């Protein structure tokens, strides 16, 4: 028991550090979004992140080629990831950070819903209640009718929805598809789609802003590595909730860097969404509550296709560890 407690503490602390770095990554996205379109930011983020991604993917020794075993599911996930990248980056550009996070935190609720038709998951009354309450929290944040809703709010909602869709597809095909296929196709699609959009959206970038794009790629790479270690050390049911710590960083960064303040209703709505998400995570942590544990097995962070995903890399490192152990 003491070893488990110690490992879970380490995992939680590492996750807090990883999500703090991810939040700093989002600050840079927001800074660049004030001057450049999300198409341009995604394009250069993917371009700069490619060398790091290729280096990691070259180490995938799994037998096979780059042809998907489930082409339609891979195509759906690829499209969902491209949409997620554009919408999430745009939402960070035009909305207060805390409000953006609050809406994106609805992803676990949407994953729970999508797990029913895609995975055949059985969602009982308590988790349904948590989903309904959490979606009510989204309405509290948005307050339709009393606040002016813009494209940023729509982008955040679309981003959360397509992130959930892409995540549940990975859960569907993850055991059959090679990690390199799951991760490389969205990055390639991002590069091609955004390159086609460049003639319409490109703005010249000074050296400082190009450096900021490099910071985005570096922060994403470092944070992903930290999260892999966190999930290896600690239990998922302990590590996953640390995702919600990003709302704290959003309030701090928003206030000091962008003169943003979080209003009462955004705070209340975020609290409702977080409580609902935590309940779903804890319920899935019980072995009798869920056969597929779709939320726990999703590493929560919106997948924009500009960097590597935690889940496939974590599975690969575990397989490598098991293989090494079998040789001893």
Overall average pLDDT: 87
User: What is the number of independent domains?
Assistant: 1
Number of helices: 13
- Biggest sheet statistics: none
Distance between the termini: 27 Å
Order of helices and strands: HHHHHHHHHHHHH
Indicate the percent of residues in helices: over 70%
**CA-based gyration radius:** 19 Å
Q: Enumerate the spans where pLDDT stays under 50 for 5 or more consecutive residues.
A: none
Shape: globular
Number of strands: 0
Structural class: mainly alpha
Strand content: under 5%
Description:
The chain is mainly α. The chain has one domain (2-296, 309-327). Helices cover 74% and strands 0% of the residues. The protein has helices spanning 2-33, 38-57, 71-94, 97-104, 107-119, 125-142, 151-173, 179-201, 207-233, 236-239, 246-258, 264-284, 310-327. Helix 3 (71-94) crosses helix 8 and helix 4 packs antiparallel against helix 11.
């Amino acid at each position: 028991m003491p070893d488990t407690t110690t490992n879970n503490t380490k995992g939680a602390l590492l996750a807090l550090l990883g999500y703090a770095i991810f939040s700093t990554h989002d600050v840079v996205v927001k800074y660049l979004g004030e001057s450049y379109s999300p198409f341009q930011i995604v394009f250069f983020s993917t371009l700069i992140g490619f060398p790091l991604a290729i280096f990691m993917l070259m180490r995938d020794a799994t037998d096979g080629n780059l042809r998907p075993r489930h082409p339609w599911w891979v195509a759906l996930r690829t499209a969902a990831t491209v949409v997620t990248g554009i919408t999430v980056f745009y939402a960070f550009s035009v909305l207060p950070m805390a409000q953006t996070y609050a809406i994106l935190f609805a992803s676990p609720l949407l994953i729970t819903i999508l797990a029913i038709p895609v995975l055949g998951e059985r969602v009982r009354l308590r988790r349904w209640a948590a989903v309904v309450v959490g979606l009510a929290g989204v309405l509290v944040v948005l307050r339709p009718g009393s606040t002016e809703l813009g494209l940023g709010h729509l982008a955040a909602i679309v981003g959360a929805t397509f992130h959930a869709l892409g995540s549940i597809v990975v859960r569907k095909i993850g055991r059959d598809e090679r990690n390199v296929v799951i991760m490389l196709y969205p990055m390639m699609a991002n590069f091609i789609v955004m390159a086609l959009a460049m003639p319409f959206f490109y703005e010249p970038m000074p050296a400082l802003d190009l450096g900021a794009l490099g910071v985005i790629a570096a922060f994403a790479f470092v944070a992903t590595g930290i999260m892999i270690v966190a999930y290896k050390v600690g239990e998922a049911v302990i590590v996953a909730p640390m995702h919600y710590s990003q709302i704290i960083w959003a309030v701090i960064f928003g206030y000091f860097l962008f003169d943003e303040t979080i209003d009462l209703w955004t705070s209340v709505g975020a609290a409702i969404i977080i409580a609902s998400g935590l309940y779903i995570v804890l319920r899935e942590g019980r072995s009798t509550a869920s056969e597929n544990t779709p939320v726990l097995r999703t590493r929560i962070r919106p997948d924009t296709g500009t960097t590597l995903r935690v889940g496939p890399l974590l599975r690969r490192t575990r397989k490598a560890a098991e293989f090494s152990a079998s040789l001893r």
